[in-house]
Structures are given as structure tokens and as C-alpha cells.
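Side project, low priority. Logging it here so it doesn't get lost.
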Amino acid sequence: MLKTVLKAATAAAFIAGPAVAEMEEKLVTVVTSENPQTQLMSMVLTMQALQKGAEVRILLCGPGGDIALDEAPETATAGQPPKDMSPQGLLKAAISNGATAEVCAIYLPGRGEGPEVLMDGVGVAQPPAMADALLDDGAAVWSF
């Protein structure tokens, strides 16, 4: 009996091994925090995932959306210790490294503004597409 269980477990691990190795790594980072340190750390970790080859989407909502504004508040643009990086600076770096960045669909209407106030490279999320990304079995979702 024990031999049969061990053989089955070994076979399952052997079969699952290649499937895991072939699985595409996807990440959706959701940023809603108004705290600049939290915003920065969300971008630091997202950049790490990008550098490891993950396909990254960034969703910025509420106060988190402010880092995507062309004229962002100082909290989004001021460098923070220890490396004098800012949330917006790392958002720009993530975009230039292949991340897709979008504000929530209701962010701009809530501000009474249009997409022209967003920095280059940031779009407006479409709820059906974003729901698909969040529900994707192969995606991790990080929320800050």
C-alpha cells in the first residue's frame, strides 16, 4: 500500500513538474494606498517581479492613482530613503520595462478629468479586461 502511494506521488510530481515550469508568470499589482512609502514599496516589488520575467499589469485606484498623474502630488514624486526613489519614478521604470499601467475606470471621472492628465504610458482600465486579468488562474494579485 505504502509503495503504491509513493509511486503515485512520485508520478504526480513528475507530471506536474514540467507543467509548473512552463506556467507563464503573471502579476497584477493593485495600488490604492495614499501612503507614499507603501506606494514606493509596491513599485519596488513590482519591479523585482518584472526583472524576474513576470508579465505585469498595474492597477492604480483612488489615492494610488495619483502617482500616475502628469502633475502628481509631491508625495508621489519626492525621493525616499534609502535610494532616493519615488513611487512615480519607479512606475515610469516599470512601464519602460514592459509593465502595463492603468488607473481604475472610475478614477478620472471621480476627479472630473480626462485621460489627458495622466503621464505617458498610463491608460484607463476597462473593467471586463481587468476582471479577466485578476481572475486569471496563472496570475498573482498583490494589493497595496
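Brief comment: The longest helix spans residues 2-22.
Revisit when time allows.
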